[in-house]
Design brief:
Shape: elongated
Oligomer: single chain
Order of helices and strands: HHEHHEHEHEHEHHHHHHHHH
Number of domains: 2
Structural class: alpha/beta
CATH class of the largest domain: Alpha Beta
Strand order of the largest sheet: 2-3-4-1-5
Distance between the termini: 51 Å
Largest sheet: 5 strands, parallel
Length: 334
């Protein structure tokens, strides 16, 4: 389901306002580059722009979303709006050539034509050169919209012919709401909105049994290390090490740990809508009362230092044992 205008304004206020203004003033560029991380609304905004160009009943540049033109663009059935996606791992020259042939014809329902190239950074060099020729001689009624997560991988000559519109990562609060709309449990959405800004990854992790168990293990380790440091060492052996084996998994465990201590800070500063573990609020509130801001800051620094040591290939067991001791006020990470 395509995003509404209100959602686009929330997600990307600057991009939304810029494009709406261009549509209202009939000053649309011949080529745009939407650049930003996955899950930031680039494709939704591209469809919004396409609808604004074809809409039968726009209001100050904002498409109505209900006319025949808007609905067919939403469903992917408009004959003059073409979306190009990677064929396998890349966008091939033949795909761009087919697009050029299509655009050499007159529009089916008007003189205007629009094309959207998703993952434009995945064009082969031949495809990119073909597109460059297309951009160098733009038809006055053709609008190109290129979407990319990695602008640096694209030809500078293509970039120079596009109006660049950056897309910012969604705020965790907005992303959490978006995940809840996608039927991710609110408790899991709160945590995942801090760990990734990619919707597909967040939805996958929300039902991934390994991740669900990882969350439980790190919460239990936090509870145990507060009062029973020696039992924490035992749990490292019996639960932590068997579950977190790969470097990426270990780093994720440290992120899970980090957000526990960040929650304590959020509680101290009354930012409850920022919590990563809202289901632990009652327990964390007690802990926050018994912990100083200075101590929490030191503990967060200690976890970040552990992440740095991990990237220096420090032994995992030694790393975690030292982390438990340091969080208890024992020996430092060395």
């Amino acid at each position: 389901m395509a995003a509404t205008w209100n959602e686009l304004q929330q997600w990307q206020p600057l991009a939304a306002q810029m494009l709406a203004h261009s549509l209202a003033k009939h000053r649309v560029a011949h080529a745009y580059l939407f650049e930003g991380a996955r899950g930031t609304g680039k494709k939704d905004m591209a469809l919004f722009l396409a609808q604004g160009l074809f809409c039968l009943r726009p209001t100050e540049g904002i498409p109505c979303k209900t006319c025949d033109q808007c609905q067919r663009i939403t469903s992917g059935n408009h004959p003059d709006v073409h979306v190009v996606e990677p064929d396998g791992l890349s966008i091939k020259k033949d795909q761009i050539r087919a697009l050029q042939e299509e655009f050499s014809k007159s529009g089916v329902e008007s003189k205007r034509k629009t094309y959207i190239i998703n993952f434009a950074d995945k064009m082969t060099s031949q495809a990119a050169n073909s597109l460059l020729k297309f951009l160098e001689e733009p038809h006055p009624s053709t609008t190109a919209i290129l979407l990319t997560e990695q602008m640096q991988l694209m030809l500078p000559t293509i970039l120079s012919r596009c109006q660049h519109i950056p897309f910012q990562s969604l705020s965790p609060v907005l992303f959490k709401e978006r995940l809840i709309e996608q039927e991710v449990h609110p408790t899991m959405a709160a945590l995942l909105s801090k760990l990734t800004n990619q919707q597909e990854e967040a939805i996958r992790l929300s039902t991934d049994e390994w991740f669900v168990q990882a969350r439980k293990i790190m919460l239990k380790l936090y509870e145990v290390q507060k009062v029973h440091p020696f039992e924490a060492m035992t749990r490292l052996q019996s639960e932590y090490l068997p579950h977190f084996k790969e470097k990426e998994q270990i780093e994720q465990s440290l992120d899970l740990f980090l957000h526990i201590y960040k929650d304590l800070l959020y509680i101290q500063t009354d930012k409850l809508d920022h919590l990563s573990y809202p289901d632990q609020l009652e327990v964390f509130q007690k802990d926050a009362l018994q912990t100083s801001t200075k101590q929490l800051s030191d503990q967060l620094t200690t976890i970040l230092e552990a992440k740095r040591k991990l990237h220096q290939n420090m032994n995992t067991q030694l790393l975690m044992e030292q982390l438990m001791l340091k969080l208890q006020g024992g020996s430092a990470l060395v």
